[in-house]
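[Automated response] Your request has been received and processed.

Submitted sequence:
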Amino acid sequence: MPRDQHHSQTSSTSSALLFGPDDRTDVPIPPIDRLPSELLSIIFALTLDGNSFSPEHIFRAIALSHVSRYWRQASLDASTLWTLVDLRYPTIGREFCARSRSSPIRVTFTPTCRNDVRAFSAQAEHWLSAHMQRVESIYLFASQSMMRTVLALFGTAIPQLLDLASGLHSSTRGGPSLLVELRSARLHRICFDDISFNGWNRRVSFPASLRKLTLSRLYTSFCPSVPDVLSILNSCPILEEFALVSALREPPHVIDGTFVDLPVVELPHLKLLELGTRSRVIMTQILSHLSIPATTTIFLHSHGVTDLSAVIPADLSRLRIFSLLQYRSMSFHVTLQISTNGLALINHADPARASVRFAVSPEALPQILENAASISYILSGVTALQIVAPNGSTPSVPLTPLTCKRLFACLPRLMSIEVGGSATESLVSFLQTLSDPTVSSSTPRDRIPCRRLQTMRILDRWRDGRHLYQHLLALEQCLTVRASALNAPLASLDFEILQEFTRETVSSFRTRLRTVTKRVRLFNGGVAPLLANTGTYPQCSMRQ
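Generated structure:
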């Protein structure tokens, strides 16, 4: 074959592979190019950076559009790929605004030391003005003087941003971040992190349209007071999410009743409340001045506390989720989740799965569990106990038989237990006290803990077969005494064992346990936890 003819054929083949088929029928089409453009655009979106304000998002979108003609056309047809506008790149930003067509756009600005924010704003003022009504969010990680300059760009189209900017202290220090979201050119969400704000007493800065408000790690000299916070909440009647973490001006001396004259704030639409302050008295007093629905998830930072009653107000009538947790209907279910860094009470009666969550110090957890009696009024409705990590591993939750005894005394309606790790031995040791020779088979029902218990799942693995056998024997003994005293065996028992055990050994274990339970299942891992684990922390993106 002549050299030029070979070169022409090679070029033709390469062109077909990159840009799709030509009039030659023998050139293969790459499988990815056989996908419909709509499906391809979904794949593009999934490959972009997870952080919606990351510059990497911009450069990946550009790279995708330069792979082939087909990919370029598919990416250009997907307007949502081009919705991030970084003010540091005005030429790219102008092009992205055009490609995003009518889709909502997100604006971001994270300058470096060499950036001239005034030069950027002067350029952006010309091409961004035509797209102001499409702006749905603005994320700024800059000095507050820069923030004020950037927000001034939107003053004509979104006056609320000008009012918000006027409350920012003209600080030149770096590190603060501000996130705002808008709906129909009105403020929908505000997130302050490390911000110096001096407009707390101006309600116009927090309009009635606000639905999400986060105040975290505010600069100490500019923190709001408790009256300021309640005043802001009172001006936002449709608020759905509120977080206040290390962002409160705390008086040097606070006692119960300090803010008793402040009005109670009604927040009928609140879905998530997160509080964290150094003073437990202030936390309880803020809670005592809020009236929220039973579907609200409450998350309380309780580090340094050894008795959770210290962060719960005396009057729970307006915090309706607490009243709901005490409900005693047979169809009502509450799960108590215990992990090394927190406790959670999850309400399963409502589709919203409202919950009360406490973040605690790991070293304080044993004492918190020993003091469970102090919050027995909210533990009395618990029907399921879960002590297992979200990924199914076995965490080291520090429990002792005495701690188990005090905890289970507060769980009269407990019907299901799922446990793993070091807590397993303590639980089995606690239940084994029932099989002590001094306890006769006629043990009174009121001396049997967890009298309503129906299901047990033990997620643990013992490398020592002898150790495992001892635990199974202890479990069999205590379940035998329990079945005799209650005149009913356990309904279900799931037990994780090692794959190394022989079939005969497993069969022997199953035979022994079937005498004290209606259903026995021994498995060697790979099975999801019986109870749905929703974690310890709120499942929402309140903080950027």
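Summary generated for your ticket: Residues 1-24, 390-394, 526-544 have pLDDT under 50 and may be disordered. Residues 465-486 form the longest helix (22 residues).
If you did not submit this request, please reply to this message.
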